[in-house]
Amino acid sequence: MTRLALFSVAVALAAASLDVAIGLPLAYLLGRRRFPGRRALEAILCLPLVLPPTVTGFALLVLFGHRGVLGLALDRAFGLTVPFTPAANVLAAATVAFPLFLRTARAAIEAVPAEHVLDARALGLSPWRAATRVVLPLASRGLWAGAALAVGRALGEFGATLMLAGDVPGRTQTLSLGVFDAALRGNDGRAAALSLLLVAISFALLLPASALERAR
Amino acid sequence: MIRTHGLRAMLGDFPLGPIDLDLPRGALGLLVGPSGAGKTSALRALAGIIPSTGAIEIAGGRVEALPPERRPLGWVPQGGGLFPHLTAAGNVELVRAASAPPALELLARVGAAPLAARRPQALSGGERLRVALARALARQAPVLLLDEPFAAIDRSGTSSLAALVRELCAGGVTALVVSHDIERARDADWLGILCRGRLLVGGPPRELLASEAGGELGELLRG
Q1: What residue in B sits closest to A132 (Cα-Cα)?
Q2: Could you tell me if A43 lies within 8 Å of chain B, comparing CB atoms?
């Protein structure tokens, strides 16, 4: 059970890190630049929020599967196979949790008054330094809150993970998959224990996240 | 020195300019006008943070084609515009040029050394302006642009800040101050009156205020 919990937390942290790495530049772009198609871009990026996770998982399987465009490319370039590996856990969880980070981060970056950015530039800061030394620090609470939400969502990921990573005990099984597995086998005690563990970990994560959001 | 020729920018519903300005080294210029006249936009155009056309010369070099970070000027936005996530010293340090004195020394120069560790939220209006002035000096620029520096501070704070700016000018800095208050005109070497984006008059304040046009405009601005 400890191994399952550690694996789930590791997957969730890796997925959220991937979300931050990809989402932060996009959130900055969406929050501070005005360009045609901005709303449409955000809507597309946030699709995993409203799509059934099975649909997201199926799309990932089509893209990263053995015959998918990206799956083939990864296999040829690095000899990497995604489906039914821990990498699939991370990818599925990162995709589903991505909109939560993106939306929270975009809102936080957008909320930084434009005057601060103009002043930073007039004071001699380059666009890069104005972004990293003024805008991002001022948005930091929202960025942390978004990252915590992404970890929480990634931890609870089930549908897309089942499609892409499967439920391989000792390899791709996470806490949420473990609950499903135990319940399916009629092992209610184990299902309950795993559920409680998941609730405890999620609560420990979300508490600081909501505190950060309130403090904004 | 600040010199502009045919400086124009686009404001919300009316054009700004053309503005022709010629402030020699060490001069204190004052640009007055009612709110919405385009005073802040004129400063922003000089600083390069809004698009503009026309020639801008600062300390002998043409800067209109340069990005803001390469225009040699110190910037004091309205209310000080201190970054709330940094202390007073942190604000100064953020923009400090490598060749400039340490942040504490710059703060001391404006009488704000005891405020170094304080956050902007814990400073009064006058204190914020002083820190903002120290921050503007941290670029060691020959030109200072100040947007409504006297708007949020009391009378004694105003006169000590005005004296400080005067002192900097005596040291060779050229300052352009924007204000809605024509009272400050007696401190200035040059006075410009801006109304709905147009520079109505510009020249030595004594001459302008003595002339009948100046008198009327003074009434208008006071009223």
Answers
A1: B94
A2: no
Q: What is the pLDDT along chain B (223 residues), one digit of tens a residue?
A: 999 999 999 877 789 979 999 999 999 999 998 888 899 999 999 999 999 999 999 988 999 999 999 999 999 999 999 999 999 999 999 999 999 999 999 999 999 999 999 999 999 999 999 999 999 999 999 999 999 988 877 777 788 888 889 999 999 999 999 988 777 777 789 999 888 888 888 888 877 777 755 566 556 545 4
Indicate the CATH number for domain B27-35+72-222.
3.40.50.300
For chain A, state the CA radius of gyration.
Answer: 19
Task: Please name the residues between 108 and 127 in chain A that touch chain B, using a CB distance below 8 Å.
Answer: 115-116, 118-126
Q: Which of A119, A126, A133 is the closest to B69 by Cβ?
A: A126
B211 CA to chain A: closest CA distance, Å?
Answer: 36
Q: In the numeric block, which tokens belong to residue A159? A: 């549908």
Sheet holding B198-203, edge to edge: B73-76, B143-147, B174-179, B28-32, B190-195, B198-203
Instruction: Flag if A137 and B85 touch (Cβ within 8 Å).
Output: yes
Tell whether A145 lies on the interface with B, counting CB pairs under 8 A.
Answer: no
Per-residue model confidence (pLDDT) at position B207: 79
Between CA A194 and CA A171 the distance in angstroms is 17
Q: Do the Cβ atoms of A138 and B85 come within 8 Å?
A: yes
The nearest alpha carbon in chain A to B70 belongs to A124
Whether the link from the prior residue into B68 is cis, omega within 30° of 0, is no
Rounded distance between C-alpha atoms, residue B149 and residue B158, angstroms: 8
Q: Could you tell me what percentage of chain A is helix, strand and coil, using 3-state DSSP and rounding each to the nearest 5?
A: 80, 0, 20
Chain A residue with minimum CA distance to B133: A123
Q: What is the pLDDT of residue A215?
A: 60
Per-residue pLDDT tens digits for A142-156: 999 999 999 999 999
Q: Are B211 and B59 in contact (CB under 8 A)?
A: no
Interstrand relation of B28-32 and B190-195 (parallel, antiparallel or unpaired):
parallel
- Residue A129's contacts (CB-CB under 8 Å, 6 or more residues apart) are A120
Hey, what domains does chain A have and what are their CATH numbers?
A: 2-214 (1.10.3720.10)
Angle separating helix axes A175-184 and A188-214, nearest 10 degrees: 150
The domain limits of chain B are: 27-35+72-222
Q: Which residues of B touch A143 (CB under 8 A)?
A: none
At B144, phi and psi to the nearest 5? Answer: -120, 130
